[in-house]
Structures are given as C-alpha cells and as structure tokens.
Design goal:
The protein has 197 residues and is mostly helical. The protein is built from 7 helices and no strands. It starts with a helix and ends with a helix.
Length: 197
C-alpha cells in the first residue's frame, strides 16, 4: 500500500470522528492532519525510506492516536455543549429583562406626567440582568445554599430600596426574589437527603 493511500484512510477516519461537529472545527482538524501527513511523507521520502515502510509508519501512528482522537472529539463536544448552554442562559436573561422593562416603557409612553428617564431604564436593566444571572446560576447549581442566600440578599435590598423610593415594583420584586431564594434553599437542603436513600 502506498503512503498516499494510507493517508486517504487516515483522512477517512478523521472525517468520521469529526462528523456532527461544527464545520469550521471539523475542517480545521482535517486540514491539520492532512498537512501533518503530507509533511511526514515528504520528510520520510527525503530520508530515502521506502514507501511500504512509510505507509506502515502512518498506519502505526493512526492506531496509536485513536485514543487521542477520541479524547479530542470529547473535548470539542463538551466545549460546544457549554457554549450552547451559556448562549441559552444569556438569551433567557436578556429576554426576561426586556419583557420586564416593557411594562414601565409602555407606562411611560401612554401616561401623562413624569415617566422613567433613560438612566432609570439603564439602572433597572443592569439590576435585572444581575438578578437574572444570579438566578440562572442558582438554578444550574441547585444545592448551592450560598447562591440562594445571595438571591435573598438582593431581594431584601430591592425591598428596602423600594420602600425608600416608595416604588411598589421594587418591593414586589424583592418579595419574589426572597421567596425564590427560600425555595432554592429548601431544595438545596432536601436534595442531599434524597440522594442518600
């Protein structure tokens, strides 16, 4: 078997284990292995090594690299999954903030008198985004009592700020956050007991 034919077999294996990965990642890996094989063949031929021995060397490298190839694919799959999860979390937080901010925006547009300023919307957006991120983290890591306590603290601060400014929306938001923190805290406490059964 010629080295080029063996390189084609290796390329087939690379296409197989990169299937279903993002096209750019798969193409980069295919090109990387192809360039490496091309250099390997050229170097060995320049040293005067026979084609049969070069082909055996390529086959040996492929067999020895199977575990590394599988590990590489696993890393790529995990990274892709984490990126998708992060994107979904960010999208949920952004959508939640936008929906909540629509209420005061509509109220500001349809009512006469003083409404929210641009600064109010920015401050509320930052505040709501921070709350959303904390809730996302707490939901993803149920069992983390510190995050539940963090949500409760933010809720208490929202309630106190709402009382000081006489803003019932902030008081209600604070109550919702405190209740959700309590629910997460209770879930965190009961979860280890369920696993021990």
């Amino acid at each position: 078997m010629t080295p080029e034919r063996m390189a084609e077999l290796v390329a087939g294996w690379v296409r197989f284990y990169t299937r279903d990965l993002p096209a750019a990642v798969a193409q980069r890996r295919i090109e990387e292995i192809d360039a490496d094989l091309h250099d390997h063949i050229a170097h060995e031929r320049a040293q005067g090594i026979s084609d049969r021995r070069i082909a055996r060397g390529i086959a040996s490298r492929m067999v020895r690299g199977l575990a590394a190839d599988a590990a590489w694919r696993g890393r790529q799959t995990r990274e892709g999954t984490m990126n998708k999860a992060l994107y979904r979390s960010a999208a949920r937080v952004a959508l939640g903030v936008a929906v909540i901010l629509l209420v005061p925006l509509v109220a500001t547009l349809v009512t006469e008198g003083e409404g929210w300023s641009v600064g109010d919307f920015i401050a509320a957006g930052v505040f709501l985004a921070a709350i959303g991120v904390v809730i996302e983290l707490a939901v993803k890591r149920v069992g983390n009592l510190a995050l539940a306590i963090g949500i409760a603290v933010v809720g208490v601060l929202a309630g106190v700020a709402g009382e000081a400014d006489d803003a019932p929306g902030l008081v209600l938001l604070g109550i919702v956050l405190i209740v959700s923190a309590c629910a997460l805290g209770i879930r965190a406490r009961t979860r280890p007991a369920q696993h021990s059964r």
